[in-house]
Amino acid sequence: MSLSILGIACSPRRDGNSTRLLLEAMATAKAAGHTPELLYLSDLKINPCQGCNACSAKGICVIKDDISILKEKLIQADRIILAAPIFMMGLNAQTKIIIDRMQPFWALKYLHHQTLTNPSGYERIGLYLGAAGLKKPDVFDCAERSIKTFFNMLDIRYAQPCLYGGIDLAGEINEHPTAFDDVRKATQALLIS
Ligand SMILES: Cc1cc2nc3c(=O)[nH]c(=O)nc-3n(C[C@H](O)[C@H](O)[C@H](O)COP(=O)(O)O)c2cc1C
């Protein structure tokens, strides 16, 4: 079965470390016979949530921008692979903005009891690929909580992430002894789950 796989490159650095990991995941999925789609957030114009709560009524956002492109793809995807760096001990702003803009899905799920989950029990799965300059044990804690919330809102199971600290300059991930192998294995696991 061919899966719909969406890769989201969330770093403002198009050749950055997290995106390099994502490209490896995309190549792995392609080699396994799937047709992954890679989306660069930097190609979209997405504004931050205004907190107006208009979406509480029917799950419809009043801001008209490129979030609709992303939301459509998120609804359709069987597997989502999100690659994002750590900025100031949390997710970079571009990633956080799209997560906040998922509030209409939150409203549908928790206020209107509508779910994106297929009634047959078919499961969607999400993988988080991350890079951080610091090698501190808690450097991904804050980001992981937001990513888990993001996936949970979309009824997507959170897979074991691939997170790498001590990686700062663009391309430094290439020197990591296991990162690309880890990502290949994590992607293969997504495809057979
Ligand atoms: C504005 C900014 C803030 C950052 N803050 C942190 C931080 O708080 N902790 C950390 O470990 N790394 C921090 N970094 C370093 C990035 O996480 C690191 O360079 C990472 O490899 C970037 O991934 P990317 O190439 O995918 O964008 C910061 C980088 C920038 C540009």
Key structural traits:
alpha/beta; Rossmann fold; seven-stranded mixed beta sheet; 7 helices; 7 strands; 38% helix; globular; binds flavin mononucleotide
Could you give a short description of this structure?
The chain is an alpha/beta fold. The chain has seven helices and seven strands; from the N terminus they run βαβααββααβαββα.
Written overview of the protein:
It contains seven helices and seven strands. By secondary structure, it is α/β, with parallel strands linked by helices. The chain has one domain: Rossmann fold, CATH 3.40.50. Strands 1, 2, 3, 4, 5, 6 and 7 form a seven-stranded mixed sheet that branches. It binds flavin mononucleotide. The site of flavin mononucleotide has 19 residues, from helix 1 and strand 3.
